[in-house]
Design a protein that fits this description.
This protein is α/β, with parallel strands linked by helices. Helix content is 39%, strand content 11%. Keywords: Signal.
């Protein structure tokens, strides 16, 4: 997902504002995990490494989860690739319309996904809401990818449906039903409540849904920690709320190692474990070779965006479409071709080494 360049000055400002805002969040923060509880939880897990995952046969979250296009065969094969390089964590986006369409079937498919992931010794981080890319979504057949365009079919959730009468009640029911069903499930590592709130020009307009989803999650009180990743250092109000209400600090950073390390150093001031839930954009200086070893050294979980090249077209850069569909000389994201062949053998060997494979 697209992220602005990290600026040292705004990070310093954020670090200050986070602590100032935290005192204003007492109602919600009363149940937030303490640093001691968060660090005890983190110590029970191996170093977390993995990717943001969607099967190569799905253009978006609806295509992944709808009954007609749910593809356990591909999921099993591609999570096998992940197991083969030692990945133990995958971040996976859910979708509210798939639940509204078929509540029981949706939860059955989520359980089926978790069973496949567990077979490959992979825990899952599920995402509920998202402010990235396309605001309009319709159930049923999803569009074909736009040739050479990054994430041409990816969907915001709820996107423009948030304005619909009764939508908030549906979203609350969705979050609480899924959390209640899986609140004790050890196959789930963490609930990522909201991906990149404020993206797509929304900025602070996303605060209402962000606060709601944290409140809904606290009402259910799952065994697993909840979080919402920091990603744009200009969004001071959103960032302060996310950081002060997250059990574990998660964040996105697509910059080079020098800038990324500054982000880590400042976020560590919260005294809680860190998981980077999006990194690795080769043409922007964020590579496995310079970022992943640093994340391991700093005891930060490492989940890169993109896994198997497919319908999401994330081998292409955010802002550099290739209308003729030519494969870029340097892939933006992704690790494997569909047949399991690595894009870069040296990257895969490094990942395996870091994961002890």
């Amino acid at each position: 997902m697209k992220s602005i360049l990290f600026k040292t000055a705004t990070l310093i400002l954020l670090a200050s504002s986070l602590f100032n805002e935290a005192s204003a969040q007492k109602a919600s923060a009363a149940k937030v995990w303490t640093p001691a509880k968060a660090n005890a939880w983190y110590a029970q897990h191996k170093w977390m490494s993995g990717a943001d995952f969607i099967p190569s046969t799905a253009i978006n979250q609806l295509e992944m989860w709808q009954a007609d296009t749910f593809d356990p065969t591909t999921i099993d094969r591609e999570l096998g690739y992940a197991e083969g390089i030692g990945f133990n964590t995958m971040r996976v986006f859910l979708y509210s319309l798939a639940w509204q369409q078929d509540k029981a079937g949706f939860k059955k498919r989520v359980d089926q996904y978790l069973a496949i992931a567990a077979k490959h010794h992979i825990q899952t981080m599920f995402v509920f809401f998202d402010d990235c890319w396309n605001a309009g979504a319709k159930v049923g057949l999803q569009p074909a990818p736009k040739t050479g365009v990054h994430n041409s079919g990816w969907l915001q959730d709820p996107g423009n449906r948030e304005r619909n009468a009764g939508e908030n009640a549906l979203l609350e029911a969705y979050v609480k039903d899924v959390l209640t069903t899986f609140k004790h499930d050890k196959r789930i590592l963490l609930w990522d409540l909201y991906n990149e709130p404020g993206n797509s020009g929304k900025k602070d307009a996303s605060m209402g849904l962000l606060a709601n989803v944290f409140n809904w999650a606290r009402a259910v009180n799952p065994d697993q920690p909840v979080s919402a990743g920091l990603w744009d250092w200009g969004f001071e109000k959103l960032n302060a709320y996310q950081a002060s209400n997250s059990d574990i600090i998660t964040y996105h950073d697509y910059t080079d190692e020098k800038s990324h390390l500054k982000t880590i150093q400042l976020l560590k001031t919260h005294g809680k474990p860190l998981i980077c839930t999006e990194y690795m954009a080769r043409t922007r200086g964020s590579h496995f070779s310079n970022i992943m070893p640093m994340l391991k050294q700093e005891h930060v979980g490492a989940l890169n965006w993109g896994f198997v090249m497919g319908k999401t077209n994330t081998i292409y850069a955010w802002d550099n479409p290739m209308p003729d569909g030519t494969e870029p000389k340097e892939w933006f994201h992704d690790i494997f071709r569909k047949d399991g062949t690595p894009y870069k053998t040296d990257e895969v060997e490094l990942i395996k080494k870091l994961n002890g494979k």
